[in-house]
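Comment thread on ticket #2218

A.B. wrote:
> Attaching the input chain for the structure job we discussed in standup.
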Amino acid sequence: MRNINQSATYNIESNLINFFIADNRYQQQNVSQTNSREMHNYYEKPFYNEELFQAIWEKLREEKVVYDTVENLRNKDIYKLSPYKELTSQQLDIKNEILDFCRENINRDGNHVIAIEGDAGSGKSVLLSSLFNTIQDLAHDSSSSLHATDNYLLVNHGEMLKTYKGIANSLPNLKKKSLMKPTPFINQKTKDDSKADIVLVDEAHLLLTKEDSYNNFRYQNQLEEIIKRSKITIVIFDPKQVLKIKSYWDDRLLEEITNQYNAKTVKLTDQLRMNANPETMRWIDHFVAKELLPFPPKKEDSKFELKIFEEASAFKEAIESKNDEVGLSRIVSTFDYLHKKDKKTYIVDKDGINIPWNSTQDNITWAEYPESIKEVGSIYTVQGFDLNYVGVVLGPSVSYDEENDRLVIDPSR
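C.D. wrote:
> Ran it. Output below, let me know if you need it in another format.
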């Protein structure tokens, strides 16, 4: 017989909220949890967090209160981005710093900007989801200085927008009308001649930095136009994840814009997506910098696997096997193979992988669509999402210069 301590009850309560959100059948009624809970290891946490919670959830399934399994729900993006996920101490400190920034500047003149920088997997979107939910709860709290504020979360990534809208189904203060893409927000505020109070921008490195009439954007820089139409702008930014010429960002361009306003930057440095040993992390960091180190050896206690395949058939079999075993395992590729938005089928690497590019589903993200195990995802499909295992196809644009011992990226290929 175990006594349940306060940390355990908080943990179980948060888990129930997260899994109910992922199960997507009920709407939360009590919104008093505006104070986020920090991720920490209390006494016997594995028992309460895993064994006891699993038993509670199975009892709820037996009573037909919920239907899906813990394992399936853990693989859902809605679960991973739930605003009630426990935050690390670094995430919580930054969240509180941003809330203080909002309280201090909401009634001041001018435009105020705070940028959150961090590498892929550093928990930027989880922090943003938690932050926006708290801001919207405070907007409905008559005792808060943020009461009755008009706030928005802007997402340029269509797949990620589906996830945020899925989360909004379960939370009373998150409304789908406050979740928008940047261009419709800019055009709506221009038409209404109005200004938002607080605007959060996810994946700001995807914002346009030149006019794009195809997407109905008639200005020169989306971030600048968003800031002009907001009292406070909160920006998630990773200069390493710039995708295309019309979204060309670097630190200098970001500073040029933010220097015009009351602005500050905070940084997320922890790596949460990859549970890898330091040698593996170092190998990947150097690979990103176009340097090849000796391949890191797999350690006995490591849960992270890094492998390189020469044969396409063995590569595909490995990912399919992992998908059968743990789910949410997919193949993605560098954007080197022909793809058009004409609803025709285009094949990735006909002489090797020989699988079509990803299809698009209306209400489900690509990776959660079961048939996507037979497709190849692109950066436009999976950026910002977690997979259990991922097979990465390096196309012709990535090659190796033996003489200088460096990777070479050739955009013409």
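A.B. wrote:
> Thanks. Noting for the ticket: Residues 89-268 form a domain with the Rossmann fold fold (CATH 3.40.50.300).
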